[in-house]
């Protein structure tokens, strides 16, 4: 079955797609994807019994050989999903006009920036954007397929943990505009080095340059400036320095990020100066799409972060800076910088290890430990073997202070906090997703 035929089926199913037979809705088109530990082809018949309009299955599967006319047979279901999404991206507008698509990637801040852009553009437009962090080789096609005839502009987040991931994802989303939030030390295990990260993220600029697109580039970031310049991509600049802005001091009365741009103050409900670039990106894109500074700033002020990103939670016992969706050396350094600048008499850091750093893991964890020991903190709690190794073999002068504790899991830390309650502190909680630092929240 070719892509055009599959697209006709997609439209006949109401433009609704599912990859999970357990939660399928009546009328959806089921894609039987395969992974290391699952094979959706084995559940194709179950999906049909639950009401799927058709099931897209691999040619070499038992489902394909069943002869059931409700099985749409393709060579590879994931490739078919990507090709369907790319076709849909080009043909979704009933008037034949090209739909503007903004693609964004980066080491840190992708999802927050995407949500800020969505919020600002929604002042004037019907926006379809990536839900949550569905930004991988499956999530991006699914996000593109959610675009409909009412969409005015789409914002597609693209994650990468291997060198050619962005190349694959821009082939699906085909952005007209692009933004790289930053380039830092994330997923070094997959990229091999910081230069590998730059090369991989830069594939977005490569695509835009080759296809007449426009990149929104942080003019205050020399790395991004250089990456855009060598590729010859058309750019629109933004940034604090670029716009004559500055971050206003935080305090107990004003704990959230505030940005002064000349005589205008942009209020937010975000934590940390590191979010200033994300806000400036959203304001710049809003301006490019004809949204006034006043309307864009009001939209930013109304945005509340979710998914454990840059949130302040006042528990009654402590004030928690919850930023534990993920962690890498760049985002960890930014979070610690923010904690150091926070106006509080009692501070604590509860950190989970940073994963997927490869050979750089030991020195990067040692760097975090040394930074922690240089700060005025009442309590430091570290989780994971990477931190345990850094404490034991990092050559720390004077040994490990009494206020520093290390645990194997976040559950062990939660149990310790239950027996040793923390009260009256501002506590940073951060770590890689797999550490599950949210387990400590009930004890704070």
Structure overview:
- This protein is α/β, with parallel strands linked by helices.
- It is built from 18 helices and 19 strands.
- It has 3 domains: 77 residues, Udp-n-acetylmuramoylalanyl-d-glutamate--2,6- Diaminopimelate Ligase, Chain: A, domain 1, CATH 3.40.1390; 211 residues, Mur-like, catalytic domain (UDP-N-acetylmuramoyl-L-alanine:D-glutamate ligase), CATH 3.40.1190; 133 residues, Protein-Tyrosine Phosphatase, Chain A (Alpha-Beta Complex), CATH 3.90.190.
- The strands form 4 sheets. The protein has a 6-stranded parallel sheet, with helices on both faces.
- A hairpin with a 2-residue loop joins strand 12 and strand 13.
- Helix 13 packs across helix 14.
- The model has no long low-confidence stretch (mean pLDDT 92).
In terms of topology, how is this protein built?
Elements: H1 3-12, E1 17-18, E2 29-31, H2 44-49, E3 54-58, H3 62-65, E4 71-74, H4 77-91, E5 101-105, H5 110-121, E6 127-129, H6 139-145, E7 153-157, H7 165-173, E8 177-180, H8 188-191, H9 194-201, H10 203-210, E9 214-218, H11 222-231, E10 234-238, H12 240-243, E11 245-247, E12 258-261, E13 264-267, H13 276-288, H14 293-302, E14 311-314, E15 319-322, H15 329-341, E16 347-352, H16 361-373, E17 379-383, H17 385-393, E18 404-407, H18 410-419, E19 426-430
Parallel strand pairs: 1-2, 2-3, 3-4, 5-7, 5-8, 6-7, 8-9, 9-10, 15-19, 16-17, 16-19, 17-18
Antiparallel strand pairs: 11-12, 12-13, 14-15
Helix pairs in contact: 1-4, 4-6, 5-13, 5-14, 13-14, 15-16, 16-17
